[in-house]
Amino acid sequence: MNIRKPSARAIAGLALFAALLAAPLAAQLLDNAHLLTVATRMTVMAIAAVGLSLVLGLGGLVSLGHAAYLGVGAYAVGILAHHGHASGWMQLAVAMAACAGFSLVIGALSLRTRGVYFIMVTLAFAQMLYFVGVGLAPYGGDDGLTISSRSGFGPWLPLENPYVFHVVCVALLAGVAAAIHAIGRSPFGLVLMASASNERRVRAIGYQVYRYQLVAYVVSGMVCGLAGVLLANLNNFVSPSMMHWTRSAELVIMMILGGTATALGPLFGAAALIALEEFLSGQTHYWQAALGVLLLVAMRLARGGIDGLLAGGSHGR
User: Fold this and answer.
1) Which of 171, 192, 235, 246 is most buried, judged by most C-beta within 10 A?
2) Contact status, residue 57 vs residue 255, Cβ threshold 8 Å
C-alpha cells in the first residue's frame, strides 16, 4: 500500500494554521496582547485574499475593487450597531446580502470588459463606494465610525473575548480555504481556469463563460464582505479607508506574493506581508520603501510566489 508523503506546501500550510491557533497561548505567555491582534488581522486579511483568489487565481481576472466589499461588510456592522442593532446574525445577514447585491451589479458591468479595462472599471466602482463612505456624515464621514461593542452571537460565542474571536476567525479561514480549494477541483472551477487560459475556446465548446465568471465574482465579493465583518469587529471601528484602492492593491500583492496556484497561496501571502509590515515598521521610518524592495526581490526569486516555491516550481491547483 502506497502512502503519499505530505508535500512541503501542505506541511507549510498546516504549520501556519497551527501557529495561528497557538497565537492566543503565545500572547498570554509573553504577556503581549499586540501579538494576538496582529495574528487576528493576519487571519482576517487572509480570508479576504482567499476570496479574491476565486476571481484572480481561478479566473485570471485582476480586480482592483475588492476592498469595496471589505468596506461594505464592515459598514453593515458599523451602521447597524450605531442604530442599536447588535445582533451578529442580523449584521452578518445584512452584510452578506449587501455584498451579494453590490458584487452582482458591479460584476455584471465589469465582466463585459477585459484586461486593463476590467481592472480600471473595478477600480472606478470601488472608488465610487469609497467616496460614498466619505460622504456619510451621520456615520462619521471621512473620520470613520466607532463601534461600541462586538457583534453579539449569544453567550455561547462571546466575541468580546479576544481569544474566542481569534479562534473563530481561524476556523472561518480554514472553512473558506477548504471551500475555495474544493471549487478549484470542481467542474465549475475547471471551467473558470480554462476560460483564463483560452476564453474563446471555452465559449466555442458551449460554456457560458460570463455566467461562470459572474457567479465566481459574487461569491468572491461575499467572502471579502465576511472579512469586512470580522475586520470591523477586530478594530471596533470602520472608515472609508477600508474601501480605498490601496487596500485592493494590498490584497492583490498578497495573492502574487503567496502564489495564485492554490487556495493556500493567499494565506502564505497575507501572513508574509503583514509579518514584514510589522517587523519593518518597528525598525525604520522608511519601512514602506524597504518593504517595496523586499517584495521586488521576493517576486524575482519566486515567480510562482511562496506557494510555487514550496511546490518546487509546480503551479497546479
Assistant:
1) 192
2) yes
Tell which phi-psi region holds residue 154, choosing left (phi > 0), alpha (psi between -120 and 50) or beta.
left
Residues 77/151, Cβ–Cβ less than 8 Å: yes
Torsion angle of the four alpha carbons 219, 225, 229, 230, in this order, in degrees rounded to the nearest 10: 70
Look-up: residue for cell 476565486? 54
Burial of 197 (0-12, 13-18, 19+ CB in 10 A): exposed
- DSSP for 71-93, please give it: HHHHHHHHHHHHTT--BHHHHHH
**Quick one: average pLDDT of 290-312?**
78
Q: How far apart are CA 44 and CA 254, in angstroms?
A: 13
Position 69 pLDDT exceeds 80: yes
pLDDT tens readout for residues 149-180:
899 998 889 999 999 999 999 999 999 999 99
